[in-house]
Amino acid sequence: MTRGWWLTLGPLLAAGPVAAQAGETIVVRGGTIHTAAGAPIINGTIVLRGGKIVALGTSVAVPAGARVIDATGKHVVPGMIDNHSHIGAVPTDLNDFPKLIGPDHRFVDALNWLDPDFKDAAEGGVTTIVTGPGSGENVSGMAVVIKTFGDDYQRRMLLEKGGMKFAMGVKGRDRYPATTMGVAANLRQYLIKTQEYVAARKKWEDDGSKGTPPARDLAYEAMAGVLDKSTYVRAHVHAATDVMTLVRLKDEFGFDLTLHHSTEAYKVAPELARRNISAVVLPLGPRIGLTEDAMKGPYLLWKAGVKIAMHTDAPVINQKWLRLCAALAMRYGIPEEEALKMVTRNAAEIARVGDRVGSLEVGKDADLVIFDGEWYEPRSRVDTVIGDGAVIFQRDGGTR
Amino acid sequence: MTRALLTALLVVGSGTLAPAAAQSRAVVIRGGTVLTMSGAAIPNGTVVIQNGKIAAVGANVRIPAGAEIVEARGKYVMPGIIDAMSNIGISASDQDEPGEPLNPGHRTFEAYNPFGDFGSGVPGALRQRDLLSGGITTMYIGPADATLIGGQGAVVKTAGATLDSLVLREPAAMDMTLGSPPKTAARARNRDPATRMAEVAMLRQRLVKAQEYQRTRDANPATARDLGLEALARLLKREFPARIQANHPVDIRSALRLASEFEFDLVLDGAQGAFEFREELAARHVPVILGQVSHPYVSNEEIPNKDDYLPVDEGLAAKLSAAGVTTAFATFSRSFGSLAPSGAGKWLLIDAGIAASYGMSEADVLRAVTLVPARILGVADRVGTLEVGKDADVIILDGPPLSVKTWVETVYVNGQRVFDREK
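Above: the input entities. Below: the structure tokens describing the complete assembly.
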């Protein structure tokens, strides 16, 4: 395991030049293919080579020598994507309670990418996840976007700068800020200080970079990435008032914003749709007994035109049951293929990895799941999971 | 309209409710697939409800004159679902006594308020309607798991005219917990039990005291009463079982040892590590109540302490059942983070459906949320099946019970129509 990955500053996109199982071509044929990029393809064929999808359709030839997986009567979906979770770190590393605003914290520094939780997720068909710090601070640091399978860290990591976690709400009554107003004022002040930090640095450069540069501050430096949109804000938020505080901060500072949990976001759905603010909702898993009003929230957001994704908040809900979150949302009116997007394509796009994963299209990573029934039914089983073009789980054939 | 109003009253429940008067007019639910849970499914079956009870069930039953006819063609009719462990209706601050690990004298029912207002932090009418929307008509309510002995639990209905009328059985069990939750809570206060050894030692000592107390009382009835020891003495007289939440095999073994040593009846809660004890559990008739299939971590923690659990096995219920262990599912609806106890009960059926793809028959899955918990809770004479003479707790579903697309459309409790799905 001596890879010098920590010496690189983490390429934004690990381009994955290492071909997957170079040579082997896998063909999945005969199933109903839900691409998350169009209507389902009945009796379709997918050809996977070099870790990518190379052909897809109803009249695709099977290359000579290819390994053929028969999916007749089965359902094929993109490898699922959990946009918000906390696996891969020990619980005591999730929240830095003494701290209130810690944008310099990087989840990658606590991440054990070999944690067995990743394997559980992969076997449930969840092949890419966002995992990051908790909500114990108002700004708790940078999440990562990582695949759940394989032991090659560099291949697995899609984004080391996977979004800056904000968490609205009072984080303790025995210190400042102990009110909702205080939280907003404190965040606003911090963003202004970041602007001033950036301006001071720019001024020094504009003046010819002479003499001693302004002292670096890693926290402001990290938050500057939010202001220049090289990363975006992932904001834990429940109450509609706090949603609107975030909306005002976005209007004022111009950052890219996605809401997380978004419990009452449906109450201000038009404000979100107007600004292209996406929302990752709840978790909706069977463990969580939301009221029927809240359960309808995702449907109302979707209807208003807000791009939404589902998440498990794992380990709050077991990551492998991500699909149940979408299934429960479906009950309230979201159409099947739209619900699927909420655990695949939308989740990928919100996580800024939509060019790599999230849909079954030629050129995308060869991550897919074969179910023995409808993907959304609790009693359907995962038959096969393919990741980067290789079979990583087979129900009756063991795993990896 | 009248019925809608009555329904609202019954569900919202303000204390000045419609009297639970005997119902004179029979209700006939006909044409649906009737899943009685006591025999084979009856296609195109009929269920007759009269005076709050099941009056007839079958393919060919006489329809009483003047009965209200409810058409259920294409639908499924089955007994109300039973959630064998829930904290709903109990304010988060009432679920665990923070400074005292042994509370056998506490009665959960005294904190139970299903009619509470949602905004008060006590889950009330809204949550109750949520439960009914999932077909839940009976629940076991108990304390949470941060103490060794949380207190006495109760079996209640989810709808009724008054609080007292909800009770089916109280006390129904003595709730205890082994493993991380009690020792984590105690450690936070720098006191015992801070280890598993202390947990078992403290339980054993208190049970010994209960034995001594009973001997003293038997010898001299004028001895001063101690309500906690009195309750434990009732446990030792096997008036009700102990429900011990134990997940790690170490904790399950301790629970089994204590039950042998003190000869009380035992029900294991959570029991996620039960597989290696399956033969002993079957032989000793110790039933288990498992948590949700998709989330078997039953502890009252937002982030489960995985030290207490083995890797998740969705096939555990099937394997235990095959070994002859009486196995039910429950939601263990806890308070969640800072939120009030969750209404997860409504997802019990859908979640249990997962087990149907891991080796359990659909019929066995359905029995594990109806008849089996009714037996474990000691209320099978009243609920759990559609049989003549049992309480008319009946649900009508618009599709197969284990499909995620299916909705509970109508719920009867004690023959009263208490829920209709809004469309």
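Note for the figure: Chain B has eleven helices and 16 strands.
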